[in-house]
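Hi X.,

You mentioned you wanted examples for the new student's onboarding notes, showing what a folding record looks like when two proteins sit in one file. Here is a clean example. The first protein comes first, with its sequence line followed by its structure tokens.
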Amino acid sequence: MAGGVTRREKKEQLNVKNDEHQQKEATFIQWNYESPPCRSVAELQQCNKDELETELKQILDLQNPDTCMREAALLDFYSSVFSWAKESNFSPTQTSFSVALLQTLLENIRDKHMCMVENLGEFAKALAPACQNPMEDDSSPLLDVEDAKELTSYFKTSLFQKYNLFQFLLTAPREESLSSEAKTIEVFTYPDTPLEESVPANLYFE
């Protein structure tokens, strides 16, 4: 049938459009935790420092943060991201995304032993949907350009510039080695260019 589109070709075109639509609907990550009775993210945002740390100890199942350097570092990091998000006037959903992003990056270090370059790629891929995809019942993305820049800057200074330190804290085989052995931890120094410019653009939009 010359000059026309067959039923099969129409079906194939529809399948392509459906695939593209599904890709556009890729959702951003959110912090999911199961440790009742725990407060919601919105409630955690309203806690003072002591209340927040008490809740986080339960959620993260931290048994000895006063004596364990690894648990102390995790508690401080999770508490800090909540405090930073509150100061940045992030909504509960934006805060949940930020904490989920932190959790993902730390798990990549601890469980997958990712180097910094690999984890930067994961950071970029996790950030992209939050910047591009509209939220439900809202025409705007979860993070606007300024929000994304602020979040990127936060993770740059709090995690990526101290990457080797976190690798050691999260993967050291014995806790006692943290205090009994003299270790030299190299702190990565970034050039003056923003972190988002140092990550290949294709990683943001894969």
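Then the second protein repeats the pattern, sequence line and then tokens:
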Amino acid sequence: MDYKKIADEVSEKILSYSQDTSGWRVIKVSKNVTVSSKPSKEYAGNIYRGEGIIKEVPSKIIPFMYLPEYRNKWDKALQSYKLLERIDQDTGIYHSVTHSYGMGLISSRDFVDLLYVKPYPGGILTTNCNVEYSSCPPTPSCVRGYNNPCGYVCSPLPENPEHSKLVVFIQPQLGGMLPGSVVETVLPTTLINLITETRAGLKGLKSHN
């Protein structure tokens, strides 16, 4: 499998999502995070966009969000998160396992994703997309989810380059027999938690340094 080719194609999609301003509908605003959605072109559901400001520069935010030594400490949604294989310094295959959600309404999910970090003019982006990986087959203990192209786009604010705008795109297929109404409720909350926990984690990291 040509992982680099897949990663490049997905990064182009993430950039195009970030430049696409039409058709988004704001569905939730909380804790200075705005979540919008629109129908996805990848599957029969929605793509979700979460946006927020973080008081840090992109080169600090992005590693904090995807490296296991950081993410396992701050991301309360995850039971575990680990690197399965490094492709090169910017590309790797990661396995994440989520906690169950909503008093067990949604059981634990796991994802195997190709992650790629790429500078672009004006900031840094990361991409996530599902890949088949034979040494990490699905297990009975959780439902295997499928990530359509997802990613983070992080850029310094022109008026304050020490702060950044973080935009997160997700369009996962959670698997199992979940009603659409449950997914519509859970994914916006997931985005808000992700951005607020990133803020809190970075703040905590600064106070320890």
